[in-house]
Amino acid sequence: MADGHRLEFLDHAVLQLLKATGRQQLMQAVWVYGRPVDHDGVRRLHRNLSGSILNRLIEASPLPFGRPRWVRPTTPPPLLVADPRPRAELLDWADSMRNLPIDPERGPAWHLMLQPFTDGTSAVSVIGSHCIGDGVGALLAIHQAVTGGANDVTYDAAGARSRGEGIVADLRQAKADLRRSARAAVAVTRTVYGAVRERRSAHAEVDTRTFIDLPTAAILVPMAEWDARAADLSGNSHTLFAAIVARLAASLGRRRRSDGAVSLHLAVNRRVSLDDDRAIAMEFARAAIEPDGLPRDLAQARSTLRESRRMLDHQSDPALELLPLVPWLPLRAMRKAPDLLFSYADDLPVSCSNLGDLFPDLARADGTPADHMLLRGVDSHVTLADLHRSHGHLVAVSGRLGDAVSISVESWEIGADNSRQRLRGLLDAALADFRLSGTHL
After folding, report:
1. In a designed cystine with 206, which of 34, 99, 277, 388 is the match (CB 3.0 to 4.6 A)?
2. Element (DSSP H or E) covering residue 283
3. What mean pLDDT do residues 283-307 have?
4. What is the mean pLDDT of the chain?
């Protein structure tokens, strides 16, 4: 745990990117019930989440180069109950939650909403800023909330530290960080500004004011069929998910120009418990997969994914060297960081998060098992300039719970039909390539 509950450098970088670009990356869990939910159970979930590590804010340092720290908000966000709407609008409702006011500094940083449907069914959703946690961190907090476990993490109340105390403490920390920051300054001179200079002209004429509502889709695939197909193709569940995402990426134009492969950025969890209060406790393994032969054999893809994970375990991402410089960088410099960090111009990266087998208790939003649970990564305040910079967008998240494998995707293809109907069709086609089908939510 960070000294004085200060943010780690990666967490600080994620916050600075949000402040510099305005683009909000969010994590969302959705529970679907074939009946009205127990309101008392949902209120209990809200109360328990309000005492969890999810309910925290970021307090800025009084120094312009000081590291921010975690604090406890004065009050949690209220439980939201929406008016009934048709069941067919489930995903529209889930998408609308990304437009709720979410602010990791001023609060609230998360929301819990209950949505009844006119046919007597219902849904519950939690959505929160990635600045306060990653997917695994959120799931651990939710699991703790649904099981009533105790939370031992405590933070100072927001504003509890005086300005003088903050200046003294943060100057001491800045001095301790100085050597690492100096090494990062050397690295950033070699890489970031060169990358920015090469790409500056490519985005100069793109509209930076038009916001885009990214289309989403979500599907449930029977787990028995999924596992049988993975075994038939000499793969496993992780490889099959990556292969389906690679086929979807190819249909959305996200193949590398150099060799036609799809560049997957695979989230790898580095968190083991809630004692770790980092917001982002993950790294990304990068794997290039040729999508054409995947429906016939997954053995090569499985080997490629295994090797990418092995390389990550033995060689950290060079971009991490730059992080100790983040407290010293002006926001205008942070606006250029995505070009370097994600190699947008060349790799057309696809974010691929497989959360694997989930705790069965996670399905109990109101204290009883939901019929379905969906996990998603969604973005808000995305501009057309953002999407041109990345040459489009594709994020896919999967989890295994009950008797189903869930897949959720968010995408954008420059110059194409970006309707949900088309995205669903492309997702169906990618599954059909592997002789699989599912039920859309």
Report:
1. 388
2. strand 282-289
3. 94
4. 89
* Distance of alpha carbon 107 from alpha carbon 122, whole angstroms: 27
How does pLDDT run across 175-234, given as a tens digit for each residue?
Answer: 888 888 887 777 666 555 554 444 444 444 556 678 899 999 999 999 999 999 999 999
Burial class (CB in 10 A: 0-12, 13-18, 19+), 331: exposed
Each residue of 129-149: pLDDT tens digit?
999 999 999 999 999 999 987
**CATH number of domain containing 343:** 3.30.559
DSSP state of 228: H
> How do residues 247-281 score in pLDDT, each as one tens digit?
999 999 999 988 999 999 999 998 877 788 899 99
Question: Tens digit of pLDDT for each residue in 366-421?
Answer: 999 999 999 999 999 999 988 988 889 999 999 999 999 999 999 999 999 999 99
| Separation of CA 428 from chain center | 23
Number of domains in the chain: 2
CA atoms 222, 224, 230, 233: torsion sign? negative
Determine the pLDDT at residue 341: 52
Please check whether residue 136 is in contact with residue 282, taking contact to mean a CB–CB distance below 8 angstroms: yes
Give me the domain span that covers residue 68.
3-167
Same domain, 428 and 329: yes
Name the one residue in this structure whose structure tokens are 């953002």: 386
C-alpha 14/C-alpha 387 separation (Å) is 18
Residues 149 and 265 in one domain: no
pLDDT > 90 fraction of the chain, expressed in percent and rounded: 71
Using an 8 Å Cβ cutoff, are 397 and 38 in contact? no
Give the relative orientation of helices 237-251 and 420-432 as an angle to the nearest 10 degrees: 130
Tokens representing 136 are 């695994």
Is the separation of the CB atoms in 16 and 72 below 8 Å?
no
Picking from 359, 310, 383, the residue whose alpha carbon sits closest to that of residue 138 is 359
Write the DSSP symbol of residue 186. H
The vertex-151 CA angle with 147 and 156, nearest 5°, equals 150
Is 155 inside any structural domain?
yes
Q: Provide the 8-state DSSP code for 328.
A: G
Task: Please determine, for residue 322, whether its predicted confidence score (pLDDT) is greater than 50.
Answer: yes
Helix (H), strand (E) at residue 32: strand 24-33
Q: Of 346, 383, 354, nearest to 284 (Cα)?
A: 354
Cis peptide, bond prior to residue 73, ω within 30 of zero? no
Residue 205 and residue 219: Cα distance in Å, rounded?
37
For residue 341, CA distances in Å to 111, 131, 311 come to 29, 17, 18
- Structure tokens that stand for 119 in this block: 């046919």
Residue 362: HSE in the Cβ half-sphere, 13 Å Cα cutoff: 24
